[in-house]
Amino acid sequence: MKGGKLIIFSAPSGSGKTTIVRYLLKQPELNLAFSVSAASRARRGKEKEGQHYYFMNVSEFKNHIKQDDFLEWEEVYRDNFYGTLKREVERLWAEGKNVIFDIDVVGGLRIKKKFPKETLAVFVKPPSVDELKIRLKKRSTESEDKINMRIAKASVELATAPQFDKVIKNYDLDTALEEAHKLVADFVEVSASKKED
């Protein structure tokens, strides 16, 4: 596998990484394309196949693992798998794009390890675990048990922050977006003239 740059955004659920990634994707000078992950779970709400995730059942997912089709994968919760298909990254690289990921910390660090020179790994830090809980509750998409599970996982994930290239503290969204844009622009080497266009 050979191609453009890889930009990883990882964080505990509710830290704001998805908001940051969506913002960066709208900046044409960065030439980014989103890596759609595979997931062994049912669709939620208005999620679309190939846009939000590549949905598959557990046995399909395990079959892809056996065939070494993933760049990285993880069983996040029991029988709840997420992963990055190699063909997805190859497809985006073939289009001449830099690939941006919104993935969990374990997956992010695995990609960084496989492609150390081509990868910028960014950890998005929430103001606090309490703030995370408030944000997750506001979403109203998950049960209290699921939220508690995510909060317990967040404490473990926060400990991995020093393993990332950069840490963005998302205490103020506008500041975090600005910081993220500068980091990515520097990494993909957007020329000053392009920034001014």
How would you sum up this structure in a few lines?
The chain is α/β, with parallel strands linked by helices and 197 residues long. It has helices spanning 17-25, 58-66, 86-94, 105-114, 129-139, 144-158, 173-187, 192-196; strands at 6-10, 32-34, 37-39, 53-55, 70-77, 80-85, 98-102, 119-125, 166-169. It has one domain (6-188): 3-Layer(aba) Sandwich (Rossmann fold).
Features:
alpha/beta, 22% strand, 8 helices, Rossmann fold, 9 strands, four-stranded mixed sheet
Mind sketching the topology for me?
Elements: E1 6-10, H1 17-25, E2 32-34, E3 37-39, E4 53-55, H2 58-66, E5 70-77, E6 80-85, H3 86-94, E7 98-102, H4 105-114, E8 119-125, H5 129-139, H6 144-158, E9 166-169, H7 173-187, H8 192-196
Parallel strand pairs: 1-7, 1-8, 2-7, 3-4, 8-9
Antiparallel strand pairs: 3-6, 5-6
Helix pairs in contact: 5-6
Q: For the report, how would you describe the main beta sheet?
A: 5 strands, parallel
Q: What is the element string, with H for helices and E for strands? A: EHEEEHEEHEHEHHEHH
Radius of gyration: 17 Å
Shape: globular
Share of helix, binned: 40-55%
Average pLDDT, all residues: 90
CATH topology term: Rossmann fold
Strands in their spatial order, largest beta sheet: 2-7-1-8-9
- Give the helix/strand class: alpha/beta
Number of strands: 9
Portion in beta strands: 15-25%
Could you tell me how far the N terminus lies from the C terminus, measured between alpha carbons in angstroms?
Answer: 32 Å
Q: Give the name of the CATH superfamily.
A: P-loop containing nucleotide triphosphate hydrolases
**Which CATH architecture is right?**
3-Layer(aba) Sandwich
